[in-house]
Amino acid sequence: MKVSASLDYALRAMVELAAAPAGQPLKADEMAARQGIPSRFLAQLLAELRRANLVSSGRGYAGGYWLAVEPATVTVADIARVIDGPLADVHGTSPELFGPPGVAAPTRELWIAVRAALRSVMELVTIADLAAGKLPDAVATLLDDPDAWTRRPDPAERSASDRR
């Protein structure tokens, strides 16, 4: 799975808002500077989150952005769906509606399983969890596997290094 810059930045902005003192709006420029996010890009993402009723905003000197919902009720999956759409579409089709022919037919079940795996993490972790710096135990346990911390080379990289 590739995590888009849009999703990464939107998630980081939501965590900033969740960590802010209650009743204290945050300026988009301040969030952008703290998180190293281009200001205009963040403004677009905050507008999407506002349209989804996850964020509210006010103008003026005391204005800024704040969460429109309780952080414990917003999951990473919720934000991903707002920013990037469904978690595991295949060619823009829901995996259960995807039907490759012949011997490739089992790939339908593969994509459904991939979606279930993504949900098992992304629907467990809330913005409140991230703002508190603590992942749910079921997700944190995945980090105990040393292999989780290692990026595997793609097959083209492996075969090129094997030829040397």
Task: Walk me through what this model shows.
The chain has about 160 residues and is mainly α. The two termini are about 30 Å apart. The model has no long low-confidence stretch (mean pLDDT about 90). Helix 1 crosses helix 4 (about 75-85) and helix 2 (about 30-35) crosses helix 3. The protein has a two-stranded antiparallel ribbon. It has 8 helices and 2 strands; from the N terminus they run H-H-H-E-E-H-H-H-H-H.
Helices and strands in order:
Layout: H1 5-19, H2 28-35, H3 39-51, E1 55-58, E2 64-67, H4 76-84, H5 107-122, H6 127-132, H7 137-140, H8 155-163
Antiparallel strand pairs: 1-2
Flag low-confidence runs. none
Helical proportion, percent range: 40-55%
Task: State the total count of DSSP E strands.
Answer: 2
- Strand pairing plus helix content: what structural class? mainly alpha
Compute the separation of the termini in Å.
30 Å
Shape: globular
Rg from C-alpha positions?
19 Å
Report on the biggest sheet. Answer: 2 strands, antiparallel
Give, in spatial order, the strands making up the sheet with the most strands.
1-2
Briefly say what this structure is.
The protein is mainly alpha-helical and 164 residues long. Helices cover 49% and strands 5% of the residues.
Fill in the keyword field for this structure.
164 residues; 5% strand; two-stranded antiparallel sheet; mainly alpha; 8 helices; 49% helix; single chain
